[in-house]
Amino acid sequence: MAASPGSGSANPRKFSEKIALHTQRQAEETRAFEQLMTDLTLSRVQFQKLQQLRLTQYHGGSLPNVSQLRSSASEFQAERNSSPCVDGLRQ
After folding, report:
1. Is the dihedral of CA 34, 35, 40, 45 positive or negative?
2. How far apart are CA 65 and CA 72, in angstroms?
3. Where mainly found (predicted)?
4. For residues 80 and 91, is the Cβ–Cβ distance under 8 A?
5. Distance, CA of 42 to CA of 46 (rounded, Å)
6. Is the dihedral of CA 24, 27, 33, 38 positive or negative?
7. Residue 90 contacts residue 77 (beta carbons within 8 Å)
8. How far apart are CA 53 and CA 19, in angstroms?
9. What is the pLDDT of residues 11-67, one digit of tens each?
10. Rg of the chain taking only CA atoms, in angstroms
């Protein structure tokens, strides 16, 4: 089977077109990937800023009275120790 005289010059043109299309698609995919990574990075930074803001927000109100907490805790402990055991086990 003999090759036609023009087929030798047609193949490089087809290959160069395929290469150009491949290069174009790769560039588009790279741009899309870079855009996605930029969006992800910005979202992550915004999330971290929101977390820091939540942690550093001042929640108004006064501090608890520590002496009342201690007396309440000791009363609770006394009630607990004087309560009957359940199934013979003290909690």
Report:
1. positive
2. 11
3. cytoplasm
4. yes
5. 6
6. negative
7. no
8. 51
9. 767 888 999 999 999 999 999 999 999 999 999 999 988 888 877 766 666 666 667
10. 37
